[in-house]
Write a structure and sequence with these properties.
This protein starts with 21 loop residues before the first helix and ends in a 71-residue tail after the last helix. Strands 1-2-3 form a three-stranded antiparallel sheet. The chain is built from three helices and three strands. By secondary structure, the protein is of the alpha+beta class.
Length: 231
Amino acid sequence: MLDRDGVTLEEWEKTTFKVVSEYVALTMVQLMRGVTAPGGTAPAASSVGVQVAGKTGTVNDHTDVWFMGYTPTYVTGVWMGYPGRKKPLGNDMTGAHGALPMFIDFMRDFMKDKPKEDFPKAPTMPEDMKEMYKQRQRELQLERAQMTVDEDEQKTDETTKPDVNTAPITTPRLEDNSVPPPRTEPGESKPNVETPKETKPAPAGTPTQSRPREVEPAKKKGKKGDDGPPG
């Protein structure tokens, strides 16, 4: 990488190391090629004239849109937005409508003198990954079976659960003067139980009756001037 004055800023060292399996990498390439194929979100990218894979991107509020595309050798990314701030570009602005046309214009000119390359096909799934895949399928099958059992048990509980009366519990109001009838043995006559008479309060203004006052007996009087008892 050189700057505008031709000074080397970075230089690639021809050293490589494996970061992902070939099967996974080329399977992902096939998926990303589906984006630029008919039915994908960026079918116009195939107009570049070479095999291209890529991915569109659009932020929910349309403040940022982009398209990242690549060939077997080159990668190009186009982004649209306002640097340093979030400002909507318009509801109709997406990665396919905004960024993809710039990608196509650039790649047509850039790839004009480049040799055409094809992506290699993905190899067959490695044996260790096949075993992992089978194991995962067995685990999913067991999970589905357990979910079915749980659903059946829940349905059974709902059908056998007794109905609960949600009506409020009310205690019957008994009359203050009600007396339960006495029990009688078979053959005995039913006793006559008199209902106690209801006591009515005295009307207002009626004097309250009280016990009569005891009168002291009259004392015998002696002769005038004789205070003592008669002789």
